[in-house]
Amino acid sequence: MSRQVAVSAPGEVRIPRASPSLARKARQQAVAPYLLLAPTVCFLAFFVLWPMVRALLLAFQSTAGTYTSASFHTMYHDYQFMPSLKNTLILMGTIIPIEFAFSLAMALILQTGLRGRQFFLYCWTIPLAISDLASGIVWLSIFTQNGFLNSALVDLKLSQNGYAFLSYQHKLSLFFVVIVAEVWRSSSLIMLILSGGLQGIPKEYGEAADVFGASFFQRIWHVTLPTLKPSIRVALILRTIVAVQVFAVVIALTGQSLPVLGSQAYYWYVTYQNANVAAAFAAVILGISILSSAMYLTVLRTPAGVAGGGR
Fold first, then answer.
1. pTM
2. Block means of pLDDT (10 residues each) for the chain, length 311 residues?
3. Contact assessment for residue 87 and residue 258, using Cβ atoms and an 8 Å cutoff
4. By residue range, what is the domain housing residue 264?
């Protein structure tokens, strides 16, 4: 839209102001993104930020309401604190790499022209519809002493009485059972995130790699993974937050035989009726989540020039 220039006097040029309707439209366009974000911000502030702040305040309070660090002192000297912290970190360090490898393989299969891949997608996403506790109960029916797995081992003459997978005396088998259940339950979430990232990678990248004679694994390492960093970052942050909070599956499968931070927070709140120490455990879980997220954001920073890049 061209503007008319008015000359009021020799050597004086006056440009008329924009019309009020155009100025109002510009203001509306500037405010529109914030209005669209407002419902999400309000939801997160009310259901996430405020409970988090309230839990932190509760962790630094005594039962009388005074501010103190006694709850953290009690938590630290609890005989189950160090085992639960160690078990949580072990599960995180084991589950996340295994899930990522499985999820990446599934996402790559979905990107191929393999016949029946939609059937695979349907089967792989079934665990998303199952809750944590229900998933734990399903795997409990498989690994218990008279469960499906031991029954199959006995019927195949591979074992006489089966194997006590869920015995407190076999720590390795307890970890194995929980890892299998968690990998089955959550791999589909990471797979969907990675599949979305793979669809955003230009096909020209793969064609250029083929021209230079790159093998399949070279393409994955030098082309796919670097351009997939934004999706990997989101997937790992979400999965780490869920892994550090692991609770229902562990309770359903192992009871108190494998203490984790989430189960200890539950026991202190429900069994011992001490919300302050339970909030201290929750604060430790929050701290691990924040530190791990900051690590992912730092290590997996993507240059702006890479597809989908952004810091």
1. 0.81
2. 49 57 77 88 89 89 84 93 95 93 90 79 86 90 89 86 85 93 91 89 82 83 87 91 90 91 93 92 93 90 55 45
3. yes
4. 80-299
